[in-house]
Known about the structure:
The complex is a heterodimer. Chain A is mostly helical. Chain A folds into two domains: about 5-75, RNA polymerase sigma factor, region 2, helix turn helix motif (Rna Polymerase Sigma Factor, Chain: A, Orthogonal Bundle), CATH 1.10.1740; about 100-165, Arc Repressor Mutant, subunit A (Orthogonal Bundle). Chain A has seven helices and no strands. Chain A has helices spanning about 5-25, 30-45, 60-75, 95-110, 110-125, 130-135, 140-165. Chain A is globular. Chain A starts with a helix and ends with a helix. Chain B is an all-alpha fold.
Amino acid sequence: MAPDLTSFRRIVERHQAGLFALVRNLGLDGHACEDVVQDAFLAAFRHQDDFDPRRGSFRAWLYGIARNGARNALRKKRPVPLPTPPDREDASRPVNEPAFVRLDDALAALSAEQRAAFVLAEIHGLTHEEIAAIEGVAVGTVKSRTARARQRLREALRGAIQEAT
Amino acid sequence: MSDAYEQWLESRAEGEVPGGFADRVLTRAERLQPAKRIPLWVAAAAATAFLVRVAGTFLVFVTG
């Protein structure tokens, strides 16, 4: 099937903000982040015939491509602090900033597998089945990784609240 | 507590997109498109015209 640039532009505009957030949440920023997101879109464009709606949503397929790209990029990169979402870097700090900082730190401290499962499930709303297909593990493994990550983050938040009171 | 948690999740769900990002992706995608192929009948017509011309030149040369 011939690729259609008009519908491809719509796909890019619809999913770009989510994909940038995903790749940043997985630990990449700046040019490395943009490279992974661009490559994910282009891989989806080239291999659009490989998408099978019976195996999950288009969004999950696209996020899976980006997740794999981020994993490969992270292997080549030395570890750096988890990037803060850019819209939080301006002067208008949120009311819950101390809690946000603790949660950011707790997210950064998770293992790569736990972080990926948590980010895909809790932040980006993919199903456990979709994440299992992306990560190549059993659904139960995804559930336990997500649950453990959520518990760590809840503990971090509880700590921040206790410090504040 | 759950309010802060939910707000934090939301703050991480949408990422800022660098200016002109979609255009850069589209430019790269355009380059990936296969070059337009010459229709078979056009190629056949061009080949025939070339052969007729070569044959004509040869006949003129032979018959003087």
